[in-house]
Amino acid sequence: MSEALALGSDRRSSELSGATCRMASVEAAAEHERILREIESTDTNCIGPTLRSVYDGQEHGLFMEKLDARIRNHDRDIERMCNHHFQGFVDSITELLKVRGEAQKLKSQVTETNQRLQDDGKQLMASMEELKQCRVQQRNIATTIDKLTHCLPVLEMYSRLQEQMSAKRYYPALRTLEQLEQTCLPRAGQYRFCSIMAENIPKLRTHIRDTAMTQLRDFLESIRKHSDKIGETAVKQAQLHRSLDSSLSGQPRVLIGRRGKKEATAAATESDGSPLSEQDSGILDVEDEEDDDDEVPGAQELVDFSPVYRCLHIYTVLGLRDVFENYYRKQRRKQARLVLQPHSNMHETLEGYRRYFNQIVGFFVVEDHVLHTTQGLVNRAYVEELWELALSKIVAALRTHSSYCDDPNLVLDLKNLIVLFADTLQGYGFPVSQLFDMLFEMREQYGEILLKRWNVTFRQVLDQDNYSPIPVSTEEEYRHYTSQFPLQDPELEKLPFPKKLPFSEFVPKVYCQLKEFIYACLKYSEDLHLSSTEVDDMIRKSTNLLLTRTLSNCLQYAIKKKNVGLAELVQVIINTTHLEQSCHFLEEFISNITNVPPDTVNATKLYGTSTFKDARHAAEAEIYTNLNAKIDQFLQLADYDWMAAPPAGGNLSASDYLIDLMAFLKSTFSVFTNLPGKVAQTACMSACKHISTSLMELLLNPEVRQISIGALHQLNADVKECESFARAGPVAGFQGDTLLLAFSDLRQLLDLFTQWDWSTYLVDYGKPTCKYLRVNPHTSLALLEKMKETSRKNNVFAQFRKTDRDRQKLIDTIIKQLRNLITQQQA
């Protein structure tokens, strides 16, 4: 049993191992098959790894067997395939042998044919060679013609270039150079003459550039020398346009002369691109143009601008336009500084100013023309910059040089010249407001010069006047003076000839000079673009200066100069009164010439009334002063005996000097009949007061230490003479005894001492009804002390006479009471 079991287990083990071996051999066979297929299908260069996997395994022998079996199978397949195609191969070899014989025959025929063809082609080849040479010659001729076609234009153009250079037509020459260099020479090819031409082109350009610059320099020098002539023509044109009908004033500014035509043709070019004008620079001859009645030559027609246009075109073509523009502007700036530099003696004559203005106008006329006829050579900003520079220098120069001028006619001519200068440049679009502002400044200077001139004139009139009424004997003389001065006196007109005008010669002369001054002011205001109101205001202000400063000073000078008599002063008062009355006629005169009503709201009033009033008051004061001086001369002749004894009896007569003084006053006041009443009355009252004050000063003079009662009686007699004169009424118009009031202080003082009425004075002092109300205690005290001193020295034996002792005691008592009165008054 156990053996059976053992045998059974062995059997199962062997079966299991046999099955395992069979499975391993199957797997090996499959792997070998795969390797063989890989060897068959893989490139021989890549079978190394495959073979390595065979040698690395344990089945090498099996693989070799497998490989041999595969080889044998392939050999059998090859053998079977060869057996199948062998008969066809034999047939093919047989046919190939046949073809070789035929090929030999064909080769022989081809060789023979080729030989015959070679023999026959030799003549053809000779003809072909000849044809080839002809074609080469033909090609060379065509090439030569083509080259000549390109070279001939070069030579022709170079010849034309030489002609243009000889004719100094540089801009066309430059265009020819450009065409020659850029078009013709590249087409011509590399030839020696082309190389020579190419080498000369830069030299020719330099020559053209330098020649054009030389012509430009000549042009600049020419216009610098002739700028005054250009400006003179432009100014004349502006003056001509100012005289045109006012209906044209609203139209746009027309170009002067033929400026429009020149602008239209300045940039035009010929067919080859050159400017039309090829003339030399300088001032053109316009005589033929002046013969044309239809057109007036303009300032620009005096100048040939072709050098500028030519040089501009040339430098533009050369690519140096910026260089040319900078050079032109720099040179013109230098010329502007030269033109704007005035001569040191320019202020001496009007011609100096005219030439200065003409040069400036000529300069800017040229610049304006260049601005409008070229594109970018100068621009508006550049011209405005130059004009701003010019304006500042012109204004500074005019301020400096006009300050030296003291001739109003020259200033007026200069003003007209400046206005024409400003209008001329304004017509070219330049702003000129600063020039008119400067003219307003010059107006002040002109006014000062006029004031100085009229100051001399007024003084001459006053010095030459005889200060006497004007006698007229005929109607013609009367009308002559009334035409010069607006005299309106119906009573005087009714008087028969001969008769006298109330004023002296200086009244109509001064009035006429005032009108002349107004005309002079009006002349300056012309063409200043001022309104009528502004002109009226300017004239009135200037006239006020003439009245309040110049004429007033001249009148003061005439009044206060030495050796002026009372008659002359009286005539001055009469004259100024008439001039004062004529002021409203001056107002009307100014209104008529300015067309501004005198009652306009903002109209300036003339100060003539106050001026003549002040002069009259000064003359009145001078009359009072001179009259008092004359009175002082008489008073210096007074020779009072202050120690005179009391009069024995009868009335004392007045002093001789006083009688003469009264006679002088009577004759003097008789001349005052033509004076205004108040003036004569004031003069008379002033004279009487001065006499009274002077006599009082004689009494109180500190040098007079002693006064007797006899001296007071003599002074009392003189005062009575004065009162008699006052009572007689030397001047009409006083009411009652008004003139006697001038002597009231002296009268009451003398009455107090001559009547010795001290009791009344002391009792009634301070009362309104006091008899001696005008007697000052200080005055009476001073006079009493002088009388006391006289009594003490003259009456040596007064103590021996009772009456004298009583009088002395009375004087002492009165002095004491007066001092107490003064003390009380001061307290």
Automatic annotation (TrEMBL):
Region feature Disordered, mapped onto this chain: 259-281
Matches recorded under InterPro entries: EXOC6/Sec15 (IPR007225), EXOC6/Sec15_C (IPR046361), EXOC6/Sec15_C_dom1 (IPR042045), EXOC6_Sec15_N (IPR048359), EXOC6PINT-1/Sec15/Tip20_C_dom2 (IPR042044)
Compositionally biased spans, kind Polar residues: 271-280
Record field: transmembrane: none
Keyword Transport: yes
Gene Ontology, cellular component aspect: exocyst; plasma membrane
Keywords, sorted A to Z: Exocytosis, Transport
Pfam families: EXOC6_Sec15_N, Sec15_C
GO BP term, pick one: Golgi to plasma membrane transport
Residue stretches making up the Exocyst complex subunit EXOC6/Sec15 C-terminal domain: 434-786
Annotated ranges, domain Exocyst complex component EXOC6/Sec15 N-terminal: 66-234
PANTHER family: EXOCYST COMPLEX COMPONENT 6B (PTHR12702:SF3), SEC15 (PTHR12702)
Function: Component of the exocyst complex involved in the docking of exocytic vesicles with fusion sites on the plasma membrane.
Family statement drawn from the similarity comment of this UniProt entry: Belongs to the SEC15 family.
This protein's name: Exocyst complex component
Organism: Oryzias javanicus (Javanese ricefish)
